[in-house]
Amino acid sequence: MCGPNYLLALSGNESVIGYEAIVEAARLLRGGRIIAIKGIGGYHLACDAANEDAVTALRDRKYRKEQAFAVMVRDLTIAEETVYLTDEARGLLSSAARPIVVAPASVLLPGVATDNRDLDVLLPYAPLHHLLFAAGAPERVVMTSGNRSSEPISYQDDDALVRLEGIADAFLIGARPIARRVDDSGVRSGVYGPMVLRRSRGLLPGVVATLPTTARSSRLAAISRTQ
To answer: Are 184 and 100 contacting, i.e. CB atoms less than 8 angstroms apart?
Structure first.
C-alpha cells in the first residue's frame, strides 16, 4: 500500500499491518466486534449497526444510556434505504462537509436510537472509511465519538489505547498524526432551511472565513482555548 500505512492492534500484543489490517477490521465488524478507528479529528468507536448485541455492548461499555448513535452508511443508495431524505437533506448528506444528517428512519436498528423516530446518518468522508466498506464492512456502521460519555474525544494514539481499553476490541490506527480533536458536524433539514445542530468538522471554517477580521481573530482565539 502506498502512502500512509495502517495498523490493527489486537489483544495480546498481536497486530496486522497494511491493507490486511483494514480487511481484518472489516471482518471483525461483521463478526460483532467493536473497533476504535482513527479518523480525521479523532477516534471513533464502530460496530455493526444491525447487530443489536454489538450495539448494546457498545452502549454499555461507553456508558451512553439513551442518546442516539450516528450511523455511517456505505453510500447514498444505502442512505436512501435507511432514512427518508428530502432533496435538501440529500444535498447536505453528500456535500463536501459530509455532516451527520438527522432524518426520519425507514429501517429498524434496535438499540441505535431508542424511542426515536429519527436516525443520525453520515456518508464516508475519510479514505479509511471508503477502504473499510470496500473491504467488506457492514453497510451500516455505528460511528460514535471515541470516548466514554462526558470525556473528550481521544485523538492521540497512546492516549486512545489507554482510555478506550475495555471499550474497543481492536484499534485501527493510521500513521498520520492528528493536530487537534474535532467532532463531526450535525445538521437537520427543516421547513426554513438547514438547521445546524453542531458546527464542527467541515462547517466551522466557513463561518470563521465570513467574519470581519477583528471578529475572526477573536473567534479563532476562542476556538484554540477550547482545544
So the answer is: yes
Pairing between β-strand 186-190 and β-strand 100-104 as defined by DSSP bridges: parallel
Tell me how far apart the alpha carbons of residues 17 and 176 are, in angstroms, rounded to a whole number: 14
Which among 152, 137, 168, 145 is positioned nearest to 40, based on CA atoms? 145
The band of 49, judged by pLDDT with boundaries at 50, 70 and 90, is very high
Whether pLDDT at 227 is above 80: no
Over residues 218-225, the mean pLDDT reads 55
How far, CA to CA in Å, does 187 sit from each of 7, 13, 119, 126, 148? 33, 40, 12, 19, 23
Q: Which residue has the cell 478506550?
A: 164
pLDDT per residue as tens digits for the range 157-175: 999 999 999 999 999 999 8
- What angle in degrees, to the nearest 10, is found between the helix axes of 127-134 and 19-30? 60
Strand bridging mode 100-104 / 118-122: antiparallel
Domain boundaries, the chain: 6-198
CATH numeric code, 6-198 = 3.90.870.10
pTM, two decimal places: 0.86
